[in-house]
Structures are given as C-alpha cells and as structure tokens.
C-alpha cells in the first residue's frame, strides 16, 4: 500500500482520535480516560462508544457539526469533515460567513462577553478550522502584548496547540526527529520561523498512529505527538489555512489597544 493510500485509509472517527488525543492526554479537553481514547486510534475501532467520546470534545465537536451541516454531510465524523477541521480542505470554502458567525455567536457571546473581536474575525474570513480556534478564539493571543514569561508561555501554547507540519529526519524507536517551523512573536505580529529540529513522540512501546515512518516523510504534529503522515495536498492545505488565520490574528493585533482586550 502506498503512503498516500495509508494516509487516506483511516476512517473519520479514527482520524479524529489521531489529532484529538495529544491534548486529551494532557487533560486539556475531551473525556477523562485518554487511554481508552488512544486504544480506539491505534486499533482503528469504530463503534458508538467512540462517537460518544468524540462528542465530549466541546471545542472541536461544534465545528464538525457546522462543517457537516453547511456541506450537507450527514455525519460530523465523516472523514472529509474531520480532515477539513484539523488539516483543511475545500469543504471549508463551502461554509458561509453567516453560518460561521451564527455558530460562533451561539457558542461564545455569553461565555466570553467579547463577541466583538470574534465577529470581526469571522468577517475577516475566519473558517471552522482548528487554527481559527487557536488564533482567534483562545485567550492566549491577548497575553502576547504584556511581554515577559506570560507572553513566552502564551506563544508556546499557541504554537503547540496548533496543528504543525514537520519533515522526518530520523526515527529513533518510539520517537522521531523532525524539522518544523515554530511560531514566532516579534512584539507586533506572529510568524513562522526557520525550520528547527525537535523530538516528537510517534508511539508508546511501539504502538502509535502512524506506521513505517521514514526520513523525508511529512507529518502532522499536535503538541509533541505525530498524528498522521501528510500527503502533498494536505501539507499545502494545512499551510494555507494556518497562514490565513495567522493573518487574521495579526490584523487584530495591529489595532491599537485591542490586544489587551483579547484575553
């Protein structure tokens, strides 16, 4: 089986596990039993229990529902819908600004009390992609302008929480050495720095989401985990939608006095 076929073979619910597990393992979101969730991902098991676990990701699930509803896709865990949210594909271009705005308003107006900046981000072209949630919804953006350790921590969270891409340099047991571009902050705007080498986790005791990784493979990274092998088309899409939402975030940061109100 080719690498492209392997990448496209995981059903939607299993693909969701691959990308959602890293923050779930950290206790940031989703169900409390990350071990059970991990087992679904490595065994490629799909059953009603997995669907129920996926629904407990209250950050991601409404975006999946939005994409599915807007594109006439019956299942929010359809593979194309899941791919659209985590990586990006043409389904995102079919979600209109009104549907996106209504969804964001329903979810966040009462909870955050700061719907104005979120409305602006939708009008600027925000899409139901994970990078939108990281750069436009999370409060970390507003902590960058304060400088010091708070800004450093905020930048780290923004960088590790987004879906990153990296090129495998070497495979060392359960870990891989990858070249990836870290998020940068120059005091005014966010960007992507030059490629740097880091260590990522691909498996635990030989069991992981992606088999037969080799030097030269392009992979998706979430926190410190390898989630999937990326095709050239997926790599281009992930870069496109990440850059798109970085541009929206930077536009918001350019407005005088706005950054302090984003947290």
UniProtKB/TrEMBL annotation:
| Pfam family name, one | DUF6390
What this protein is called in its record is Uncharacterized protein
Record organism: Saccharopolyspora phatthalungensis
InterPro entries in the record, alphabetically?
DUF6390
Q: Which domain of life is it from?
A: Bacteria
């Amino acid at each position: 089986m080719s690498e492209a076929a392997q990448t496209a073979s995981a059903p939607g619910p299993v693909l969701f596990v691959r990308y959602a597990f890293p923050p779930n393992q950290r206790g940031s979101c989703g169900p409390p039993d990350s071990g059970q969730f991990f087992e679904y991902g490595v065994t490629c098991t799909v059953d009603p229990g997995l669907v129920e676990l996926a629904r407990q990701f209250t950050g991601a699930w409404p975006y999946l529902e939005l994409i599915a509803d807007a594109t006439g896709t019956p299942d929010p865990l359809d593979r194309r819908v899941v791919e659209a949210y985590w990586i990006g594909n043409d389904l995102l271009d079919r979600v209109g600004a009104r549907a996106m705005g209504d969804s964001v308003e329903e979810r966040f107006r009462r909870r955050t009390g700061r719907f104005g900046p979120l409305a602006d981000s939708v009008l600027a072209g925000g899409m139901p992609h994970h990078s939108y949630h990281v750069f436009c919804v999370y409060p970390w953006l507003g902590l960058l302008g304060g400088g010091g350790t708070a800004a450093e921590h905020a930048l780290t969270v923004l960088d590790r929480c987004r879906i990153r891409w990296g090129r495998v340099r070497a495979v060392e047991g359960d870990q891989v050495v990858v070249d990836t571009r870290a998020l940068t902050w120059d005091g005014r705007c966010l960007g992507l720095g030059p490629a740097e080498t880091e260590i990522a986790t691909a498996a635990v005791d030989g069991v992981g989401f992606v088999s037969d990784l080799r030097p030269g493979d392009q992979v998706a990274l979430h926190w410190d985990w390898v989630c999937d092998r990326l095709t050239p088309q997926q790599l281009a899409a992930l870069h496109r939608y990440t850059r798109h939402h970085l541009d929206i975030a930077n536009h918001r940061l350019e407005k005088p006095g706005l950054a302090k109100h984003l947290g």
